[in-house]
């Protein structure tokens, strides 16, 4: 207790001394004040001790007043860095100063850190420190905006420092961290310009030079991730000169136990995959590292979504390449899809990715559906996918992925078709069609699924009536979308030609009654006019 009181008293005295420092003060005295304050940041209760103390403001005044003295800058910024680590709320106080009046325009922390980068660009210790401080400051959206809008270009200053001291691993690490944070907050146009000016080469060279350094590789890949968002950039990053895919796959192979590297790597490969570079990725082993990651880190939702999304798009390329014929079984990620659907029921992105991955596996593995049954030894895929669709009923993307997966599955398995009908999934589909009646993608996927589901099925009159009403509404709402019109008309064939859906013992009178009722319903809803309009297109 006595120690805490003494530390509190010492801190108050040091703050008073710091507040009364004048520009002509002796450097040695000021350094001693700063060193004593830094020492206090190492005590056990430092976060409590420094909480609610106004040290940052007089410290910024001192840093502004002694810009040309390296020892003061090093000690002062070290202290500010430690204060922000101990009390993160200080960052918010730096953006909303109190009682500073006009001085704040001069003392803005964003201006001071940029000036530090400019003046000490050849000073390894201070440059490293300034980049470390920046990694903390850019956590604030407000300070990030001030940095980007300042006359001194923060990107140029950071890149210049990284180029000048390219052999300094720490500077490359913090530089990549700053770039990652800042690039994630700029518009696509600025990221495209960044790549067009070949500024990204600084990141690539850092990863290549320090390829054995785990932290640098991680932060380098994270800096590349936002740059891989615009399609123009992806084309450059995947070009022969850049070969970013090799950097990513090599990093994932070199550090098999680093989950963060695998997560970032999978996210990068997903963005590369979205731009149709399937063959290049296949030839350079992307599917292998993605499959290894999805199997090794089943609890990482971000990784699972990115990896399964990539595999969904790469499936066709994998299975049509003859030289991979013997490895098809090794490249099957069915179990990973099922586990992801089960583990991340509340994560829409994972559910969507897993459904698309299953859809593509079903397309290219003819016997895969035999593993999807209700028996104990099989995967209950139909139940998992149906759950995804219903649990994320507000997501058009999940519905589209789930509907396509189920349509492919019921087309191959009569047993699952009967199971889903028994569970009343068609009622759910019709409800979701009404909910997303403005989405052509949802309506087309829904109609495709219903068409497959109703094959050989015995529908009750009320279901036929409900279906016809919903399909006619769909036809009316999608007059200019021929693909939706086609799928909707196919569903109507099951309604207006019900012979195949009746049991053999049904009497002729009942069949005729149903036909008349259906005809009357269709006429009253204007179905004949919709058919004629479709035929005239």
TrEMBL record:
<protein>
    <recommendedName>
        <fullName>LRRK2 ARM repeat domain-containing protein</fullName>
    </recommendedName>
</protein>
<dbReference type="InterPro" id="IPR011989">
    <property type="entry name" value="ARM-like"/>
</dbReference>
<feature type="domain" description="LRRK2 ARM repeat">
    <location>
        <begin position="12"/>
        <end position="537"/>
    </location>
</feature>
<keyword id="KW-0677">Repeat</keyword>
<dbReference type="Pfam" id="PF23744">
    <property type="entry name" value="ARM_LRRK2"/>
</dbReference>
<dbReference type="InterPro" id="IPR016024">
    <property type="entry name" value="ARM-type_fold"/>
</dbReference>
<dbReference type="InterPro" id="IPR056597">
    <property type="entry name" value="ARM_LRRK2"/>
</dbReference>
